[in-house]
What we know:
By secondary structure, the chain is of the alpha+beta class. Helices cover about 50% and strands about 15% of the residues.
Amino acid sequence: LLAFAGAALGAVLSLWTVDLIMGMAPSDISLFQLNTVRVDQRVLLFSAAMAALTGIVFGLLPALKVSKPDLLEALKHGSRSGSAQSSRWVRSGLVTAEVALSLVLLVGAGLLMTSFLRLLNVGTGLGTERILSVSLTLDSNRYPDRAQQDGFFQQLARGAESLPGVEAASMGSGVPPDGGGFSFGFGTIEIEGQEAGEPDYNQMLPYYTVGPDYFQVLGIPILKGRSFGPQDTPESPRAVIINQAMARRYWGQDDPLGDRMRVGSSGTWRTVVGVARDVKSFGLDNPYGDLAIYYPYSQQPNNHRKLIVRTAGQPESVIDSLRQLIWTIDEGQPIHAFQTYDDLVAETLTSQRFYLTLFMVFAGLALFLAAFGIYGVVSYSVTERTHEIGVRMAVGAGRSQVLRLVVRQGMLPVGLGIAIGLVSALGLSRYIESWLYEVQPTDPWALASVVLTLSLVALAACLLPARRATRVDPIIALRAE
């Protein structure tokens, strides 16, 4: 009855919890097949089966024990303590297992929390954070050729620069670290005059298609060469700007300016005209490396671009002016949501925040169950040993001695569970290593904070029944059996 009641309550709560968690999931959740997670008939049948198994196993074992009692021992030692010692070992073992499993989840949550906090403190490399962007996609029927598309975006950029509160404006496919575009599995970078290296089809290469003044708007210095300008026309030789990481990897100490390169064996040859400072191009943790390249819009046209502005004050203060400007140029132009730089950075952390939330939820539940399990075992032990505690107090044991006795015996299986859990956590934490940023799976601060948290919760769970034990009246306790 208890097992099925718990399963029924858990099934009802899961309906709300799953919807809540899926609501916090990243937009690319379908990539991880998580969009198929739901409470369906299979989940309910599994829950019912687990409830039945739990009820049978954990109800049958003590039932078998009391069905064959040792009457002589029971009469000698009292009805409550005939099999107390063996039962105490079983209960302690269950507490140890529960604490060990809880610690594994808490260690995972602690490592992800540490990693997330360090990501929040990572700089993107941009010169300013007063950035506002808005995505615009032109209707190809209304703007059928490239000249019309370029005319709209150029007029928009010039108009944005003249607005009060706007310091500079440009166009781009994205703002670091959103990874404006990327080539995955492109093979290799080929440098004209150099022998091609081995293809690396697992490499991710973020790239941005940008307009004039893009680097100035975002505060990305051009360390060598020049930025894109009027000379980069559709008819001129194809140009590209690379970042420092690209220059170091493929040119070493040589100067890349003037050399031609292409992405993949079938790519277009482009001349390197500048080297830009490294920025976080694809997420704050740059899971695919630090390489990045930039193409000019004039040579890589499309009907989708982002208007990017640097503001003098709060970015939100110019949203209405920009919206009015866009509709002045084309009153029928759809406008996607405006996005501040802070919103953009938060969006790049969506996946990490989602994994952290999952671990925190499960770790919190595990900690909650462990605390109640410890409290239940220690509380039952105090009730079972009421006679013994009364005898101890009758022969002179003080309240502090009884308190220490109960707490010590309650914390012993907790300490063993922590030790087992730490060993298990160190073995399993390597599976989440790819989710961590500048945090080792053996991070001592994360492990220490988890052990301290679990120990304090366990101590609190032991203290409540221990305080009750100190208030036992010896006379009543001696009469109890």
